[in-house]
Amino acid sequence: MSEQFNILTLKPYRSGNLTILSDAQRENRFSSNLWGTKTQISLLKGRISKDSEGVAIKSPTRNIKGHNMSQYFYVFNLNQTNLKEESLNERRNQVEPFKKPRDFFKNK
User: Fold this and answer.
1) Which of 25, 31, 38, 83 could cross-link 46 (Cys pair, CB 3.0–4.6 Å)?
2) Which stretches in the chain have pLDDT values below 50?
3) How far apart (Å, rounded) are the C-alpha atoms in residues 53 and 39?
4) C-alpha closest to that of 37 among 11, 74, 5
5) What predicted TM-score, i.e. pTM, was given to this entire model?
């Protein structure tokens, strides 16, 4: 199983998501191990190729009552986009970081 990383944050995927993405990389013969959501790819000024299918992975979240819940979303491999790995660092530097909601309210 090879390591898989987020296209924007470069954080490694873990556990079940790592297995799902490693399997998808192998089955689809993707040369890249970078994955991102539509939003992340768009932030990097990229586009997803027509008819590309994303891979469903899950992210643990908490609801307001403190119970763990899973949220599912789709990610796409770098090979399914018009982005080139060589230009990603420059594009990442141009993306304005997201403010966390609690940081936004601190200044009010």
Assistant:
1) 83
2) 100-105, 107-108
3) 15
4) 74
5) 0.82
